[in-house]
Amino acid sequence: MNVLVPSSAREIELSARTASGGAEEERPAAASARLSRPLLAILTVFWIYVTVSNVLYARSMSLEFDPDGTRRLFAHWDARVVQHLILFPLLLGAIWVSLRVGWRPAWRAVPMQLLLGLIFCSVASPLLHDSESIMAAWHGHPVTTWMQVPHGHGPDEQEKPEGLISPAWVGSATSFFLTYGFALALVTGFALYQRFRDSELRLAAVERAWSGARLAALRMQLSPHTLFNLLHTIRGQIGWDPAAAQSMIVQLGDLLRRLLNAGERDFSRLRDELDFARLYLELQQRRFVDRLTLVLPDWAALPRTWVPSLILQPLIENAVTHGLAEHVGPVTVRVEVFQSGGGLTLRVVNSMAVGRARQPDGVGLRNVRDRLAVHFGDRATFVAQPTQAHEWVAEIHMPLLEEGPRSPSSESR
Fold first, then answer.
1. What pLDDT shows up at residue 182?
2. Domains in the chain and their CATH numbers?
3. CB burial class (10 A; 0-12, 13-18, 19+) of residue 275?
């Protein structure tokens, strides 16, 4: 045990360091190497929404300024669709570069992020002109001038944009800059959610590994403790009854085989646990023939349930050891099982000497408390205390587990 526990702790510490620190250092490069499928799906749905919104907005504005539809004040819907189709790969590229740049350090990352947004939004208006040319060539008609607003001197007199920096360009750049910012916020938020989810999964994996190592250490703690008590029992028989000692050694071999098998899994059937307890108590009874009386529950009345492996063994050992201590009369060890609703109660009762002071909890009782806490948390309780009838009662109340774990070790039994 002194070798297994530190080794498990080192493995858990290494896995935790790999899952947290190492993964955090490698995550920026890994996350920015490519856009994941969920991010691509989110950006695709978002861009479809932006395309439809812009087309409908342009249509509504055109009807607002020209209800009769005699003049073409805005680009046609198919040109806007082509514009957004061309802008979509540019959006993906800008988002990809943005993920690679990140946000730290801020003095360097923020200007680069702003520059990416400005580059993206500055090409939106020229691309709309190019889309108009593409659709005009597609339909076979000359390019029409759009975004013309009456000047006021006549129905045919119009002011035309001069140069690249025009009100139409500024309006388009502003709109697409906000659109790009929203897309970047959407992707960043989803990336943060993925990072939080991954950290929760890593934390859960580390907690499971720690719980498994702790349970394994607690189970390994029972083996030498039980073996020492049983060997001490057989030693008392060798001197005056060698034949009985040989028979007990055979029983000890069967018991240790069951002990090792039970120590390899977290849960066992209740009947297997009581069968193991019966073998142990029969070995002790052969040593204390006239002093030890056993009362076990009816096998046919036992509920078909699962319990933590070797959870009864420390209580039974404690009942035999402390029941016989400072007691010259007969001692009765009684094992009781109760099922009530969704709960299961396991009780081990032993008679004790009158006036014997209560002893502090030993390794076995602390082991039971720790294992119940790991398996069930506050859903299980354990009480060990004397009663006024000069008996010691150790009682476990835990959830009723009607279905066992799906593992090869459990299914083979």
1. 92
2. 4-205 (no CATH), 239-411 (3.30.565.10)
3. middle
